[in-house]
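Example 274.
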Amino acid sequence: MTTAVAEHWASGDVYGRIVTALHAAGKSLDALTIEDLAPVDHFHARGLPATIELGDSLPAKAGDHLLDVGCGLGGPARYFARRFGCRVSGIDVTGPFIDAGRRLTELLGMGAVVDLRQGDGQALPYGDGTFDGGYAQHVTMNVPDRPSFFGEAWRVIRPGGFFAITEHGRGNAGPTYHPVPWSEDGRGEFLVTPEETVELLGAAGFVDIDVTDTGQDDLQRYRATLALAERGELPALGLHVLMGPGAAEKWRNSARNIEEGRTHPVRVICRKPG
Ligand SMILES: C[S@@+](CC[C@H](N)C(=O)[O-])C[C@H]1O[C@@H](n2cnc3c(N)ncnc32)[C@H](O)[C@@H]1O
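Predicted structure in complex with S-adenosylmethionine:
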């Protein structure tokens, strides 16, 4: 199952495609910044603004060691490492993302504070209580075994540490339209309602579970990006570099799913009792 998920997200030379897009955008690899990369390496609804918003809600502090489950290219990991002055370990099933993410981390000179490796959030290769906190941004839509995924996060986070997710939860108005960014046709999609997510996090042992509806903000961003795509005005650097020619249809369906209540996007923050 994780092989199919990885194949869905990326194949081939992701790093090469990003470098080509950076050149087209007039960015120099010698003087690259976290902000330069943000249009392509925050791979979730609303990109960097959503990562900033997530950071505003996290009780992270300097010197912490954080875990990013489903880290993708590592944009959020690098942003949080700089913002909080902490270390971040990222893990993702998709090899081409990890390869590109490592090279981008080196380009930014952040290899000492951000490490990325390939692996599955349902079976984490870290010891108990390793991390001060963890998060998974737009990952759980592809996770068939949430008890293992949340249980593994609980195990590797220290007592008193935090855990956060952002996701497209299942809405109550019927099945999702496809394709969407996380699935071409429904295969590899495992959405649950926000209520079920809260139950599952509680069953894993997390407490103080706080849910924020992000649907309207996400919807506005999808509409704005879609409008650019329909006018042929997408910038050289953006998520379409990763998603390919089907990007506009996926954004259109993501917007329709939210509008019609078929998905229910949320940010969820909770804590392991200390
Ligand atoms: C929408 S991307 C988000 C990437 C990153 N979190 C970000 O916000 O930029 C979803 C990512 O989840 C990863 N993923 C899906 N299932 C996973 C699992 N079981 N374990 C680790 N990563 C997973 C995919 O490979 C993909 O990179």
